[in-house]
Amino acid sequence: MVSTGTPLRVGIIGANVNYGWGGRAHIPALMKLPEFTLAAVCTTRAETAAATADRFQVPLSFHDHTELVQHPDVDVVSVAVKVPYHHELTMAALNAGKHVYTEWPLGATLLEAKEMADTAKAKGVQTMVGLQARCSPSILRIKELIADGYVGEVLSCSVNLAAASITEAPSDRMWRAAIEAGASSFTIAFGHCIDALEFVVSSFREVSGVVSTQVPKWFNTDTKEMVDVTAIDTIAVSGILENGAVASAYVGSAPHNSTGYRMEIIGRKGTLVASASGGPNTTPLRLQGGQAGSNAMEDIEITEAGVWTPNDVPQGPPFHVAQMYRKFFDQVATGTAQVPDFATAVRLHELLDAIQHSSDTGQRQTVHKR
Question: What is the pTM (predicted TM-score) of this model?
Fold first, then answer.
């Protein structure tokens, strides 16, 4: 992919050099992409914003997000902060007429996500939501193999992830304990996993689910007190996809030892398995497959066709975020769909709400098509 035209000028809200996803993933990604210029950073404190700007030679720094979104030297606003603030900051950027990249979950609720998507459409700007698995070379390779008939008709598929959980944390991390914050294993880890499954196979048509808080208290390492937890940490789902395949998914928080990620796709002609120590949105996957007549599963190469970033982009979160930005540049330049946008995010929020409703009522739910 070759960069053409003037680089897009990005302003990151949540660009603390010492803490958070913006400093850990967005800045290292953008620094390696010629299509973009990191033009502005914003944190809640002037000194941390200035420190980030100084470290990376960024021209503009702010501690008031309204100044960043309204600045004429910012083309794209990236919202990389805690989920409860996504709505306010994203709406400010949209109303300022900026293109916006907001991390997943888009909103703390479906209602917030819908308002952001509707506003983006009304403003005529381009949007992207941080569902990075859709730009993972491994996930793209699986999607390609299925489309090319490697497994034939898909009969069933499953995804499992047991990730290290929070059982204790300092006070500044306790905001995630409340379900209202929208940042649980259900919305984040499960959201990324189920989105990847739908992306490579098919969307859910019907779904049944159980969601639960299996660890109802966390230990606050600052106050030495136990804190009540309502955030969901365990999710088990089954259902039927639009293509008729049977699907299941399990994501659980492991208090001690994680067992990693595994996705299986079983078809009439063959089987595909993807596995990793972490989720598909941040971790390179090992891909294996086997077809009729083969005696064992064999490793499948991940082709360069799905790698869009320069070789010096750090692996892990920066790589996956850089993949997203590369496609977002094309989307802004051409106006054609390239990345998961806010409408995609609303559909995923709707699926999560259907699973929650199924768990609440004990009844299978129909997932509406978009």
Answer: 0.95
